[in-house]
Amino acid sequence: MRVLVVEDEIRLAANIAAALRENAAVAVDVVHTGREGFDVGQQRNYDLIVLDLMLPEIDGLAVLKRLRASGQSAPVLILTAIVEKSTVVQLLNAGADDYLAKPFDLGELLARAKALIRRGKGTSNPLIRVGDLSIDSIEQTVTCHDRAIDLSPTEYRILEFLSHKPRSVVSKEKILEHLYDFNWEHHSNVIEAHISNLRRKLNRGSSASSIETLRGRGYRLLTDRYDEAP
Predict the structure, then answer these.
(1) What pLDDT is recorded for position 114?
(2) Strand, helix or coil at 118?
(3) The CATH number fitting domain 2-120, selected from 3.40.50.2300, 3.40.1360.10, 3.10.180.10, 3.40.50.720
(4) Partners of 222 in the beta sheet?
(5) Is the Cβ–Cβ distance between 178 and 48 less than 8 Å?
(6) What is the pLDDT of residues 63-84, one digit of tens each?
(7) What is the DSSP secondary-structure string of 153-220?
(8) Which among 118, 130, 154 has a CA at the least distance from the CA of 25?
(9) Is residue 175 within 8 Å of 158, Cβ to Cβ?
């Protein structure tokens, strides 16, 4: 998963990014002006955009309108110190999915962010089922027939990302974009190792689901052994 945080208060932006990385298992990009927010937001695929309303250069409402006009469909969580009903209505009409009044509790931001990400993936249920795997996106745990499968944070994030597109081929580049921040190219040689470890752990857990490598194309999560090519 990948989140964009657009917030001009540098310390607050850093705290939000750290909380999301540590508690929501997402990669986070951070920018501090409205112009940067629009430029980055329209160029990349995000699972969530956290957007401050009062920004330098271009305000948050204008950024939101421009992003929606450009075709960016990621859920948008607005951070605002202005909570008048007319402002809220204007934000929602412009394409915001939720808003949070400043000052706010980081725990509430995390809960809303996770809910918006799930909704953006087409499910409001935090429990994802693929084959005989159960993936709890809140607890970030994986079980197979009620038996826990112990995964590293990166292995979990890869599996959760693949689980949103079961049986679909996902390129290595897409996985990297959702795992790491702007400089994901630096990590490009580690994906194969993570996939290998993840596949081994799934097989050891007697899971009927596994990960197939398609050379030159990417990876896909199989829902059962019968999905595999002969």
Answers:
(1) 87
(2) helix
(3) 3.40.50.2300
(4) 210
(5) no
(6) 999 999 999 999 999 999 887 8
(7) HHHHHHHHHHHTSTTS-B-HHHHHHHHS-TTGGGGTTSHHHHHHHHHHHHHHTT-S-EEEEETTTEEE
(8) 154
(9) yes
Question: What whole-number distance in Å separates Cα of residue 5 and Cα of residue 66?
Answer: 16
Helix (H, G, I), strand (E, B) or coil at 103: coil
**pLDDT given at position 137:** 76
Domain 127-227, CATH? 1.10.10.10
Percent of the chain with pLDDT over 90: 37
Give the list of residues 6+ apart from residue 51 with CB closer than 8 angstroms, or none.
6, 37, 60, 63, 64, 76, 77, 78, 79, 96
- Nearest to residue 191, comparing CAs of 158, 167, 146, 166? 158
On the 0-12 / 13-18 / 19+ scale of CB atoms within 10 A, 51 is: buried
State pLDDT tens for residues 4-18: 999 999 999 999 999
DSSP SS3 for 141: strand
pTM: 0.67
Position 178 scores a pLDDT of 73
